[in-house]
Amino acid sequence: MNMETKQITTMNRVVKTLDHTAGRAALKFRIFGRRTAVLFCVMVLHSVSVKAVGYRLPNQDPEAIGRGNAFVATADNPSAIYYNPAGISQLEGQEIGAGVYLVSGGYNYDSPGGASARANSNVQPVPQLYYVVSPEDFPLSFGLGVYAPYGLSLDWSQHSPLETMAQKGSLLYLCFNPVVSWKIHRTLSIAIGPTINYSSAEFERAIGLFPNDQFRVDGDGMGYGFNAGILWQPLDQWSFGVNYRYTTTVDYRGSSATLPSPPYPASTSSSASILFPQYVVAGVSFRPTENWNLEFDLDWTDWNAVKQIVFKGTAFGNLVLPLNYQSSFMYEFGATRQLGRGYYGSLGFFYSQNSSPDKNFTPTIPDSDLYLGSVGLGHKGKHWDWAAAYQFGYNPARNVQNDQSAPLADGTYHIFNEALNVSVTLKF
Question: What percent of the chain shows pLDDT beyond 70?
Fold first, then answer.
């Protein structure tokens, strides 16, 4: 008897018991709940991102995105606060940059039995705000960034083949990041700054015993870390950069509930901790002439540190979910061409490795190898800069088999998502 048949048999037994007595129904539900509770907590244990590499959202500025996010060795606008804070030492006076990243989903699922589902692809806005001040004839520069390096949402909707694995999920993650950059030498700068992070999450899925029943969970919390950077340009043609972001853990406090109640247990206070792992980005920029900038970056995330999450205080007790993520890379390449009169154009590509093994895959975040292409256009003026970039992400198919955490998630996942990022910068 396979696992799916066992689950159906268990459900039928519980429903029959409910018809006899409410007390025995509650007992059977607790037995069922403990066997399948590992699936319930999936929504709180993963963020919901439209990119691969776990639950990171590495796209934080259109000038960088147009270059395939290969920007750590260039980092010459206020978004350097995110990409490489040492880069703000290249700026003069004061600059304020504001942007928005508009992204849509693009997920499709085909089950082994022939059923299919399509996630809602509504456009979601992700804000970015940066401020930099570099006092004249002073070796220190200061900056403050507010951005969302993780998050977004995914909606598979009710009554899809995946409804007992995932229906809806949303994650808000805001990072407040003051930084200080020190220009040690005209060719070398270093920087560091704390990250103060607020996050809230809401997730829901069907239980599958009654029509329209659901398990919901929500919570919020704070976490702290830091980021640092080095920028070295020994020659006009060559520049090297490194960015490091330290591990952050967010402790979420909130509630979980099952609907309808009764017969399901009532709402309870619950908590969970999510690890946002350290990562390192290193890159080299080559500028053969004043009009060209070619850059390659290697971005590594320590997903191997994310082993399991303990979800406490649910109606089913404390739950442990094994994740067993795998550390992974992004390979980023971009080229920028100066077009004259302050205008420039960019092309970029990067490849993002999958971080989630089949045995712990969840459709809440259908992580996969992803191929991303981009194109950008911008202008730098005396007091105003602007930039815009288009990006797409594509994976023809990820075949998931033998998922031990959620076997009903087995199947084929297709991805094609699109994004547009625009920004303006005031210099004074």
Answer: 87
Rounded distance between C-alpha atoms, residue 204 and residue 42, angstroms: 9
Q: Rounded to 5 degrees, what are φ and ψ at 236?
A: -60, -30
Please give the torsion angle defined by the CA atoms of residues 10, 16, 17 and 20, in that order, rounded to the nearest 10 degrees.
180
The CA–CA distances, whole Å, from 350 to 59, 67, 271 equal 12, 9, 36
Among candidate residues 305, 354, 272, 278, the one with its CA nearest the CA of residue 54: 354
Give 276's pLDDT tier (boundaries 50, 70, 90): very high
For the record, the structure tokens of 302 come out as: 């320590």
HEC readout, 132-150:
EEECCCCCEEEEEEEEEEE
What's the Cα-to-Cα distance from 47 to each of 205, 211, 250, 319, rounded to whole Å? 15, 27, 12, 18
How many helices and strands (H and E) does the chain possess?
5, 20
Helices 22-40 and 3-20 sit at what angle, rounded to 10 degrees? 150
Over the Cα atoms of the chain, what is R_g?
Answer: 24
Whether omega for the bond prior to residue 85 falls within 30 degrees of 0, making it cis, is no
- CB–CB of 74/239 below 8 Å? yes
pLDDT tops 60 at residue 302: yes
The residues facing 369 across adjacent strands are none
Distance, in Å, from the CA atom of 83 to the CA atom of 3, rounded to the nearest integer, reads 46
Q: Which helix (H) or strand (E) holds 176?
A: strand 168-185
Q: What are 1's two structure tokens?
A: 């008897």
- Give residue 105's pLDDT band: very low, low, confident or very high (50, 70, 90): confident
Protein fold of 41-427: Porin (2.40.160)
Q: First-to-last CA distance in the chain?
A: 71
Instruction: Encode pLDDT of 312-335 as tens digits.
Output: 887 767 777 777 899 999 999 999
Predicted local confidence at residue 316, as pLDDT: 67
| Residue 335, CA atoms < 13 Å, CB-side half-sphere | 7
Residue 358 class from Cβ within 10 Å (0-12 exposed, 13-18 middle, 19+ buried)? middle
